[in-house]
Specification:
Pfam families: CMD. 75% of the residues lie in helices and 0% in strands. By secondary structure, it is an all-alpha fold.
């Protein structure tokens, strides 16, 4: 991920500065930046899968947008959701498809 993330500071910087710094500097600045281990594309797929499985749809929406930026295609996202529907639950898949349609169409 080449774009520097500032969402933590933008949304929580004044309210929860330590959490904001951990989000921007550690999670996105260090973990996501280790593309020699996993590409941003693959990290996006993994992250979207984890968020869908947990039913965390506001975060899933944000990460689907990041995934699209990281080169995840509509075909890949549809396949991810379809596959996970059997493991994470059919209703979660329906909700995830609503998000994916808005982002990838």
């Amino acid at each position: 991920m080449t774009k520097k993330q500032t969402a933590g500071r933008d949304q929580l910087g004044d309210f929860a500065p330590q959490f904001a710094a951990l989000n921007d500097d550690v999670l996105f600045g260090e973990v996501w930046a280790k593309e020699d281990e996993l590409s941003a594309h693959d990290r996006s797929l993994i992250t979207c899968a984890a968020l869908m499985a947990q039913g965390l749809f506001p975060q899933l929406k944000a990460h689907m947008e990041i995934a699209k930026t990281n080169g995840v295609t509509k075909v890949e996202m549809v396949a991810l959701i379809t596959h996970l529907s059997f493991y994470a639950g059919w209703p979660k898949a329906w909700s995830a498809f609503d998000l994916a349609k808005a982002i990838f169409d």
